[in-house]
Amino acid sequence: MSTPSSRPGPLAGVRVIELAHIMAGPVSGLLLADMGADVVKVERLPGGDDTRRTTPPAINGEPASFMMVNRNKRGIAVDLKHPEGLAVVKQLITTADIVIENFRPGTPEKLGLAYPVLRELNPALVYCRITGFGLDGPYAQRAGYDLIAQGMSGLMSMTGEGPGRPPVKVGVPVGDVTAGILAATGALAAYIERLRTGQGQFLDTSLLDASVMHTYWPAALALATGVSAGPMGSAHPMAAPYQAYQTRDGWINIGAIGQANWHRITEVVDRPDWRDDSRFRENGDRVRHRAELESELNAILSQRDTDDWVAAFEAAGVPAGPVRTMTQVLEDPQVRAREMVIEVDHPVAGTIGALGCPIKFSHGGGVTRRGAPLYGQHTAEVLAEAGYDAEAIARLTAAGAVHVADSPVTA
After folding, report:
1. Where are the domains of the chain?
2. Which residue from 199, 223, 295, 390 has the highest number of Cβ atoms inside 10 Å of its Cβ?
């Protein structure tokens, strides 16, 4: 595994306040933190982020899901319903560059943390909000989860083995993760504009927006023809062969985008006659006769192991690759070479594995400074930086406005 870096990162000096929980908001904060921003995660008091209770699995009692998406952040615990706790957060926001939140609709307004209020405190603030369905339209007040967004975006209608089978969600929370990426991207765009104009701004995205974003190809089909794409397993509605095929010991994905790749495939499987076969000659022919092509390719590919076929297709210049399990992916030499598996040090869990930053910079990027914070681990530190002395921090703690973590017992 890759070891932590001490590089400052391209966002060094940028202060982010993360008023977010569970997935979409924390993913956005994670990306900014990995690029060097000082991300202060504000967790509610009592209880903290809900993913602190999303177990199993846990490592030395610390939830793996929370640690995965909250590394590189400093964590404070504040009762936002306590007047003095709310005042603490507002004080932090006066010197922040970016705020990210994914509260339920109406919550920021009830708490007194809506953008118009915060803009008065910090006109240069970039405020990014993530909701289930966006801030306008007939669904604006609905709460949303990734599963709901996947169903309403059309993704689940196209995911699965075929017609007549139950709808299937994508195996990972694509709406949550993509919304987090969009929030980080939008926040940085607004921050760049602020560098030019000195003015902050408000922006929002949603799980539904993020999920619909993944439908470029099927949306193109629907807008052009009025036809909705249905589930096709791993196949592609506009190209063939382009799907997973069964080998002797597993599965292989083969992609024949373009006639040249199709000709190379016929050579690798020793069926050059397919080039003149009226069923398979052109892409349109192959799409119409997809079932026959799949049957014939499966009969050939099932005679050899996946790795043998991958090597053969690679030698011929055909895009191909195995279908791997998650544990296999984490050991893959390319994934390791790209530092997508790293190690971070956690004060309780010890040295643990994590996913690395997917953006690679020529210098000053992919920063890993610390593991995910314990509940309230950095409350005293962050408040001291904001001008609170030890007596004031003790008073806030005694009043229940904030929580200061005890010294951790290192694993």
Report:
1. 15-214+359-403, 251-322
2. 199
